[in-house]
């Protein structure tokens, strides 16, 4: 009986390690994995990765996602949606977060690169860049 418990515990730890990422939040079945900014996130096919970046649309700045390998990850919802905290109607300058979710499709690697810039300032460097390395196994 003790040997069965040890084997079950080992199997549970291996399963948890398989869906862990370097510093990312482990998820229960069906819950999204929170991606690690400037780090590595590892997923299994079918898992969802969630990314939230601080934003303030009233400044004119917006996050945009550069091309990524769509054979590895598929867009999901929300995708690029800015959500602000509660505030009085008509109040401007309220900070929020822009959210993305992507679903792991097949084994592979891709890097998600987000640029925070004003769309009308083409050619100007982004005010901020965020990178997320994603591996699907």
Discrete helix count: 1
State the low-pLDDT regions, or none: 1-29
Q: Give a short account of the largest sheet.
A: 4 strands, mixed
Radius of gyration: 18 Å
Q: What's the CATH architecture name? A: Sandwich
Shape descriptor reads globular
Indicate the multimeric state: single chain
Mean pLDDT: 83
In total, how many domains does the architecture comprise? 1
Q: What would the CATH topology be?
A: Immunoglobulin-like
Portion of residues in helices?
A: 10-25%
- Please give the order of strands in the largest beta sheet: 1-3-6-5
Strand content: 35-45%
Listing every helix as H and every strand as E from the N terminus to the C terminus, the arrangement reads HEEEEEEEE
What's the level 1 CATH class? Mainly Beta
Number of strands: 8
Helix vs. strand class: mainly beta
State the separation between the terminal residues, measured CA to CA.
Answer: 33 Å
Account of the protein in words:
By secondary structure, the chain is mostly beta strands. It has a single domain (2-136), classed as Immunoglobulin-like (Sandwich). It contains one helix and eight strands; from the N terminus they run H-E-E-E-E-E-E-E-E. The protein has one helix at residues 2-19, and strands spanning 33-34, 40-43, 48-55, 62-65, 73-84, 96-104, 108-117, 128-136. The strands form two sheets. Strands 1-3-6-5 form a four-stranded mixed sheet, with no helix packed on it. The radius of gyration is 18 Å and the shape is globular. It starts with a helix and ends with a strand. 15% of the residues are buried.
């Amino acid at each position: 009986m003790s040997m069965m418990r040890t084997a079950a515990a080992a199997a549970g730890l291996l399963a948890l390690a398989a869906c862990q990422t370097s510093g990312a939040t482990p998820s229960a079945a069906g819950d999204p994995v929170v991606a690690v900014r400037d780090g590595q996130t590892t997923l299994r096919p079918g898992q969802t990765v969630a990314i939230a970046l601080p934003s303030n649309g009233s400044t004119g700045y917006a996050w945009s996602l550069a091309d990524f390998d769509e054979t590895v990850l598929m867009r999901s919802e929300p995708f690029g949606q800015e959500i602000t905290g509660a505030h009085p109607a008509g109040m401007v300058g309220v900070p929020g977060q822009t959210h993305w979710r992507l679903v792991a499709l097949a084994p592979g690697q891709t890097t998600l690169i987000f640029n925070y810039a004003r769309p009308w300032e083409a050619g100007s460097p982004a005010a901020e860049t965020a990178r997320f390395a994603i591996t699907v196994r």
